[in-house]
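hi! just following up on the protien thing from before. the input was this:
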Amino acid sequence: MVTEEIRMIAEQYDIDLSKIQGSGPNGEVTLEDLEKYIKEHFFPKVKEERRVFGIRKVIAERLSKSYREAVHVTLNMETEMDNLIEMRKKLTEKLNTKPSYTVLMLKCIAKALRDFIEINATMEEGRIVIYENININVAVDSPIGLITPVIRDVDKKSLEELLQDYADIVERAKKGALKEKDFVGGTFTITNLGMLGVDSFTPIINPPQIGILGLNRIVQRPIVKNGEIKIANTMMLSLTFDHRAIDGAPAARFLGRVKYYMENPEKVFESE
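and the predicted 3d structure came back as:
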């Protein structure tokens, strides 16, 4: 005898109970039989299961902590990149190597952080700590997932030194050769998804820091300048900040300063 509960569940899935081979007395369909049928026919089949452990587990725990505790707010601001592109060409000729956009933008961001040092900070246990050293974590894709090793004193280093440091952490990240020292002491984080064709996203704060800047793809767009339409290379900057530690206005001013330095790179690279 099929129970009313089984009949009601079967109706929700449009299941003809006569097509299910029952395991109960006299071949009756049991609740377990029905659940098994539903699982086989209506739920996705599992291809594989992976345990979360090691650094991946640490990353998951930190991201969860970030969303539980920080009050995330994201600001987006478009910046023109034509001048930085031209500066890259000049620096390529001077250094005999093509500097990555990530490193060039690192210098601009570090200079903006020096101007707005209050965002170069961490927040723990109700205490905001603002740092003198500008140590920027750079999100790097690795065999174990996205990790954020740190480059120290970015504002004090020459472009050549930064190029060496960046190449070193990327190479060691891909080889799985980073050490604990490569992850401690960061004061701000950047993450670049531009090479993956992303126009805009919401970066997740790297706790206990209070800010992270997302860099997106450079794309040609029509813009209006001095009353005329022209084609320009542009990029969206995506800043996420912890609203517990800093308000929207100073965060927006910091983002505007990053934009200023990217659009006026001679202010950053005049001595290079």
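The two ends are 86 Å apart (CA to CA).
DSSP finds eight helices and eleven strands in the chain.
cheers
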